[in-house]
């Protein structure tokens, strides 16, 4: 049984090469929010928010499918497995249909409903019902035929009054008729009628708002939004009452032997004699905050989908034992912030709006990932910290972690155990006071450790907005009312500390504020040509690159401060836009884009996340956009990028989006101190591999020469950071032949050298 407190399990990774970059992508998805389930003779399928998994009931093998494998990052609303065609069909809230051929794993995207000339909010897919090779697709506008053999759409039925759109929640075939449970009655028509596109062929046989309908045995059962369950027999022309559920049904379905009705708190299972053989209540299962979403039965096993706790199974005969069979991953898909070291990743799920409003407050836990797998610490263990928005790992002690709460203060975690919640009673942190002295609201966000082990934190909407927690436990505050136009209206974003110990603070009202305690001086870069040249004073993120430039991401574009040392020498620092040539026209890089995060890799490239345009990788000076990843050309599940961080040792870039976290092995790692750990991968490079050869573990500015076995030079470059790529061509002209190639590596000063070999098999 999956424990609801702390648990470890290994995460199964799925990798694929992506055509745009030949990099290896991985998915780190949550499978806890079950939207729908479907059964096969020896497998159960479960659809989570935007991913799919299945468990083979014979072998117990669990298989996951997510955006890395070709799924959409959009929200799934329905799921159906066709045993006749061995295909799994996913329906989405935006009208997309994906068909997975289980025989070969291929995925077909069907966009016909998305392309219909209908309001976008009417395209949600609610249910699939198969009859004689046709899937009848229940949508928020009507019913669509989908041929499972040809993968083509047939007719569309608008069955509302006078042919209007109508929400169809479920359909069933019974006694020669197709029945539709809609938000305006139960409607039916003869299934053999070839003119069902004519709304006049459909008859309303029951009024009301109906959420489900299914045939079972010799009868038809339907439920309305009040939990009233009705029955229609083959010899009757009208429904009669069967039972009254204490809550509305969220799912109703029938297997060969059982009728299953699911409410938020209970599951009711009836046999073919309509005897209630099992009732499962949420209070029987040792999970917290449990809510049911759906359920099905395979053999003697009941599979229960939940809203936040994944897929749970139990025996139909047993009322005691429950097992959670959900693939382990992060607690939620919407990771708001993360931090990565060479050994560990921490993530938090709290958030705030674009205007820094944390309400409604989030009550989520915190997650950790390392080589052992995922550890999810639930909200019940985080000492009441709500809306946690940032993570800071002590670089001198990775077992000491701090999570910023944008309402409750600062949570300290030691050895994976939450220990202290710093707030207004036990630290230098302060609550905002403009709503009254009795209301406690402590908004901690940006955090960063300096070289001396001091933890610097920002405290929004108060006078003393900059705080520091010293290694000995002492707190110190710095007043910012002289530098901020209105401290009680200001919120802080990300913070970074440069090589000189200057703290750079993102603010919502005053651009970037720099502070150095050596001279106790504050300075700021804000909007206006004479006050810093930012496009807007609302700054979200800052990053210092390897050339000591400060990259500034605002809600209206990007700016760069040429040298952070200008804090000491210039009274008014000025940031500049990056001007690029596009179609022979001078343009500003990322003009007007909402920049959410900037991360610098080992080769000084910049990974830039945006609020709705995906992820950009630009060259060290920003003049070249190397990649622009979106949901359309990469496994990104969303174009809303929340946060980015990079494992400096492996080069793996982690991207937290609003719909899940993915990563890929970058080509840039931090430079090494020597060449003792230099290595080549893959080695050998086999015919089926389509990517590049990487030489890693390099010094910065190392010279790399590659020759064939006869000593002929085929490639030469100088490293920026710790890794270089070779596309296995002779200076970009043609692919080199099979054989052994020598790699000669030397430091910039020529003192240290290394020789490696790589075998290429064509």
Automatic annotation (TrEMBL):
Pfam name, any one: PorZ_N_b_propeller
Lineage top rank: taxon: Bacteria
Keyword Endoplasmic reticulum on entry: no
Recorded coiled-coil stretches: none
Keywords recorded for this protein, A-Z: Signal
Signal peptide annotation: 1-19
Domain PorZ N-terminal beta-propeller, chain residue ranges per copy: 44-203
Keyword Cell division attributed: no
Stored NCBIfam families: Por_Secre_tail
Protein name (database record): ABC transporter substrate-binding protein
Organism in which the protein naturally occurs: Flavobacterium psychrolimnae
